[in-house]
Amino acid sequence: MQDLHGRNINYLRLSITDRCNLRCRYCMPADGVPQTDCDGILRFEDFLQIVRAATHLGIRKVRITGGEPLVRKGVIDFLGKLSSIPGIEEVALTTNGILLADNANALKDAGIKRLNISLDSLNPKTFTEITRGGSLEAVLKGIAAAEKAGLKIKLNMVVMRGVNDHEVLSFAAMSINNPWSVRYIEYMPTIQESDWRSRIVSGAEILTQLQEKHTLEPLGHSRYCGPAKPYRIAGAKGSIGIITPMSSHFCSSCNRIRVDSMGWAKSCLLSDDRLDLKPYLELPQPHLIGALQQVIENKQLEHHLGCEQDVMTPFSMSSIGG
Q: Which residue ranges does the record assign to the Radical SAM core domain (predicted)?
């Protein structure tokens, strides 16, 4: 289905839990966030119902996010059912990788084809500081297990000035001998820290760093490609990409809507507009389809995060998924 601005919306992101086993500094405040009790979280059958309805509007790709989706009991069985829904052509998963080593083969068997793995530093000390206690070793073991299982891998690095921006070239090097996509993401001030502007390293600055060291070949976008501007280092097995939500909006090509773990649907991560789908789950399917159609039709042309006049309500990324 096309929205009112002519964009083809074929991609749904589902956050199946607000719980996470890390406390990443760009995702939530240091003291964490209040967690929703189990009664407030949608059942897996509710998510399947939403996806079935969404296929009638042209949704063909689903990405499962959190929180950390692998902390939710029963997720593997759910993913298998999700992958078998007629009309869904691809199911992918975003994870922090901590539990990946024990689940990689099961994810592959459940129909997962692609993983986005959050990895913000290759230095154990820096990694622990960013995640407030995470184990880099566990994530690297998870990546190795995912590759052995035959899953396609994207590594997502949120670049933060004075924190990990000196590792941009080290991440790029991982794409040379591995068939992985390394993606650099501009820091987004979703939790509205007082000094958030000083953390942003623009996509242009990241690109300059890369071009000073490597010859980059621009790549084309696939049908379900995300917002990254993709490149390949000459001769590399993998690719790199730069995602610029702050310095250069990609809103004109955005093809997605989102549903969080409590059933709130949003057409834009960085908008306060949302629609509660829970009442529609109790009605015949055409009502749910109509609600999702309303979300798509109300999708704004672009967000204004970073503008002085923006008054977006701060939120934890774990509550809606990145």
A: 4-217
Q: What is the pLDDT of residues 246-273, one digit of tens each?
A: 887 778 889 999 999 999 999 998 888 9
Bind-site residues:
13, 20, 24, 26-27, 63, 67, 94, 118, 154, 188, 251, 254, 256-258, 268
Q: Is 112 within 8 Å of 88 (Cβ atoms)?
A: no
Using alpha carbons only, what angle is made at residue 284 by residues 280 and 285, rounded to the nearest 5 degrees?
Answer: 80
Where is 286: in which H helix or E strand?
A: helix 285-297
Q: How far apart are CA 303 and CA 322, in angstroms?
A: 15
- Can you say which residues are annotated as belonging to the binding site for [4Fe-4S] cluster? 20, 24, 27, 251, 254, 268
Is residue 90 in a domain?
yes
Residue numbers belonging to the annotated binding site for GTP: 13, 63, 94, 154, 256-258
190 domain residue, yes or no = no
Phi, psi (deg, nearest 5) at residue 220: -80, 170
Q: Which domain holds residue 72?
A: 11-155+248-319
> Is residue 256 one of the residues assigned to a domain?
yes
Counting the structural domains of the chain, the total is 1
Domain assignment present for residue 101? The answer is yes
Q: What is the pTM of this model?
A: 0.90
> Percentage of the chain surpassing pLDDT 90?
75
Give binding residues for S-adenosyl-L-methionine as ranges.
26, 67, 118, 188
Strands (E), 111-225: 114-118, 152-159, 181-186, 216-218
